[in-house]
Amino acid sequence: MVDGPDDTPNGDTPKFAICINRRFGSDRPSCGNRGSAAIADAIETGAQERGINVTIERIVCFGMCADGPNMRLVPGGAFHKNVNLDQVDEILATLESACGHKKKSDDIPGIPGS
Protein backbone atom coordinates (compact mmCIF):
# COMPACT_ATOMS: atom_id res chain seq x y z
CA MET A 1 0.00 0.00 0.00
CA VAL A 2 1.16 3.51 -0.72
CA ASP A 3 0.38 6.89 0.71
CA GLY A 4 0.12 8.86 -2.51
CA PRO A 5 -0.15 7.79 -6.15
CA ASP A 6 -1.21 4.20 -6.80
CA ASP A 7 1.18 1.51 -7.91
CA THR A 8 1.68 1.02 -11.63
CA PRO A 9 -1.35 -0.19 -13.63
CA ASN A 10 -0.19 -3.82 -13.38
CA GLY A 11 0.06 -3.52 -9.58
CA ASP A 12 3.86 -3.47 -9.36
CA THR A 13 5.84 -0.97 -7.36
CA PRO A 14 7.11 1.81 -9.67
CA LYS A 15 10.68 1.29 -10.89
CA PHE A 16 13.47 3.82 -11.36
CA ALA A 17 16.11 2.49 -13.74
CA ILE A 18 19.70 3.71 -13.48
CA CYS A 19 22.29 2.80 -16.10
CA ILE A 20 25.56 1.61 -14.58
CA ASN A 21 27.15 0.35 -17.83
CA ARG A 22 30.91 0.69 -17.94
CA ARG A 23 32.77 0.37 -21.24
CA PHE A 24 35.99 -1.32 -20.22
CA GLY A 25 39.04 -0.79 -22.39
CA SER A 26 37.41 2.03 -24.29
CA ASP A 27 37.80 5.77 -24.35
CA ARG A 28 34.13 6.13 -25.31
CA PRO A 29 31.79 7.63 -22.67
CA SER A 30 29.57 5.51 -20.45
CA CYS A 31 27.32 6.05 -17.47
CA GLY A 32 29.46 3.81 -15.26
CA ASN A 33 32.64 5.68 -16.11
CA ARG A 34 30.89 8.90 -15.10
CA GLY A 35 29.93 7.83 -11.59
CA SER A 36 26.49 6.29 -11.99
CA ALA A 37 27.15 3.54 -9.41
CA ALA A 38 27.74 6.15 -6.68
CA ILE A 39 24.63 8.03 -7.83
CA ALA A 40 22.61 4.78 -7.70
CA ASP A 41 23.89 4.14 -4.17
CA ALA A 42 22.81 7.63 -3.08
CA ILE A 43 19.36 7.33 -4.69
CA GLU A 44 18.79 3.87 -3.17
CA THR A 45 19.76 5.13 0.29
CA GLY A 46 17.67 8.30 -0.06
CA ALA A 47 14.61 6.44 -1.34
CA GLN A 48 14.78 4.02 1.58
CA GLU A 49 15.31 6.78 4.16
CA ARG A 50 12.39 8.80 2.78
CA GLY A 51 10.14 5.74 2.44
CA ILE A 52 9.52 6.35 -1.26
CA ASN A 53 7.38 3.70 -2.94
CA VAL A 54 9.88 2.87 -5.67
CA THR A 55 12.23 0.05 -6.61
CA ILE A 56 15.65 1.14 -7.83
CA GLU A 57 16.96 -1.03 -10.65
CA ARG A 58 20.49 -0.90 -11.98
CA ILE A 59 20.50 -1.66 -15.68
CA VAL A 60 23.19 -2.10 -18.32
CA CYS A 61 22.33 0.46 -21.00
CA PHE A 62 19.73 2.85 -22.39
CA GLY A 63 21.82 3.38 -25.53
CA MET A 64 22.56 7.04 -24.75
CA CYS A 65 26.10 6.74 -23.37
CA ALA A 66 27.19 10.19 -24.54
CA ASP A 67 24.47 11.77 -22.37
CA GLY A 68 25.12 9.76 -19.20
CA PRO A 69 24.70 9.05 -16.45
CA ASN A 70 21.12 8.36 -17.50
CA MET A 71 18.11 7.25 -15.48
CA ARG A 72 14.32 7.27 -15.66
CA LEU A 73 11.10 6.11 -14.06
CA VAL A 74 9.94 3.13 -16.12
CA PRO A 75 7.94 2.70 -18.13
CA GLY A 76 7.51 6.01 -19.86
CA GLY A 77 9.11 8.47 -17.46
CA ALA A 78 11.24 11.37 -18.64
CA PHE A 79 14.96 10.75 -18.83
CA HIS A 80 17.33 12.37 -16.36
CA LYS A 81 20.55 12.85 -18.35
CA ASN A 82 24.05 13.94 -17.36
CA VAL A 83 23.14 13.36 -13.71
CA ASN A 84 25.63 14.05 -10.93
CA LEU A 85 25.55 13.59 -7.16
CA ASP A 86 24.44 17.19 -6.64
CA GLN A 87 21.12 16.34 -8.34
CA VAL A 88 20.19 13.38 -6.11
CA ASP A 89 17.94 15.39 -3.75
CA GLU A 90 16.05 16.85 -6.72
CA ILE A 91 15.57 13.38 -8.22
CA LEU A 92 14.38 12.00 -4.88
CA ALA A 93 11.84 14.85 -4.62
CA THR A 94 10.60 13.98 -8.12
CA LEU A 95 10.29 10.31 -7.14
CA GLU A 96 8.39 11.24 -3.97
CA SER A 97 5.92 13.25 -6.03
CA ALA A 98 5.51 10.60 -8.72
CA CYS A 99 5.52 7.44 -6.58
CA GLY A 100 4.29 8.42 -3.14
CA HIS A 101 5.41 6.82 0.10
CA LYS A 102 5.24 3.31 1.47
CA LYS A 103 2.81 2.89 4.32
CA LYS A 104 4.06 1.43 7.56
CA SER A 105 2.22 -1.80 6.68
CA ASP A 106 4.67 -2.20 3.75
CA ASP A 107 7.59 -2.49 6.19
CA ILE A 108 9.12 -5.90 6.66
CA PRO A 109 8.06 -7.26 10.06
CA GLY A 110 10.87 -7.05 12.58
CA ILE A 111 12.96 -4.66 10.49
CA PRO A 112 12.17 -1.06 11.43
CA GLY A 113 12.17 1.38 8.51
CA SER A 114 12.43 -1.34 5.90
CATH class term: Alpha Beta
Described by the principal axes of the CA atoms, the overall outline is: elongated
Structural class assignment: alpha+beta
What does the largest sheet look like? 4 strands, mixed
User: In which range does the helix fraction lie?
Assistant: 10-25%
| Overall mean confidence score, pLDDT | 86
Task: Measure the end-to-end span.
Answer: 14 Å
- Count all strands and give the number: 6
- The CATH superfamily is known as Glutaredoxin
CATH architecture identity = 3-Layer(aba) Sandwich
Element-level helix/strand string? EEHEEEHE
Q: Do you know the CATH topology?
A: Glutaredoxin
Tell me the radius of gyration: 15 Å
Strand content: 15-25%
Question: How many structural domains are formed by the residues?
Answer: 1
Number of helices: 2
Q: Identify low-pLDDT runs.
A: 1-7
Sheet with the most strands: spatial strand order: 3-2-4-5
How is this fold's topology laid out?
Blueprint: E1 2-3, E2 15-19, H1 36-50, E3 55-59, E4 71-74, E5 79-80, H2 88-99, E6 101-102
Parallel strand pairs: 2-3
Antiparallel strand pairs: 1-6, 2-4, 4-5
Précis, in short:
This protein has 114 residues and is of the alpha+beta class.
Describe this structure in words.
With 114 residues, this protein is of the alpha+beta class. It has a single domain (2-104), classed as 3-Layer(aba) Sandwich (Glutaredoxin). It has helices at 36-50, 88-99; strands spanning 2-3, 15-19, 55-59, 71-74, 79-80, 101-102. A 4-stranded mixed beta sheet has the order 3-2-4-5, covered by helices on one side. A two-stranded antiparallel ribbon has the order 1-6. The longest helix is centred in the middle third of the chain and has 15 residues, at 36-50. The protein is elongated.
